[in-house]
Amino acid sequence: MKKKIQNPIAMLCFGLLLGFISRLLDIFTTNLGEIFSQMAVWILLGTLISIYSRTAKKAMVNVPAFCLGMLFTYYLTAVLSRGVYSTGYIIGWTVFALFSPFMAFLAWYAKERGVLPKIVGAGIIAVSVLSSVLLFGRFRIYDLVIDGALFFFLFIKKVER
After folding, report:
1. Is the Cα torsion angle 145, 149, 152, 157 positive or negative in sign?
2. What angle do the packed helices 56-80 and 87-109 form, to 10 degrees?
3. What are the pLDDT digits (tens) for 88-140?
């Protein structure tokens, strides 16, 4: 993928769309709704947005735009559909979104050369694995797929800078 992500408005729209779709998956499916409720999926998507952003600054704008768009439509759809949602989850995901510029920088930096960026990349994967176990109770087969994709994009796939 040579084309770099540069447009925060496009990332906001992407987040708005995925927030809506994610809520619909929660309503109408069991397995897909559960998968898209896991933090590991959003870590993967945020990492991909970051590493394919042209610069670290672009990543630090693109990822929060995506996260805030996703949160807005997810909870708006929950309200409009009279769905069940927790204030604790809203607070948790909002904190995640507020820290996303820092996390985007780390993800972008993980594709640089050297030992420290590789340690950062391993840390991203470790956080993804731990979020599955600590926050959601166990490590599932789709977590293996998600974390395998993180490993591929962080350590194997080359990204032109």
Report:
1. positive
2. 160
3. 888 988 998 999 999 999 999 999 999 999 999 999 999 999 988 887 788 88
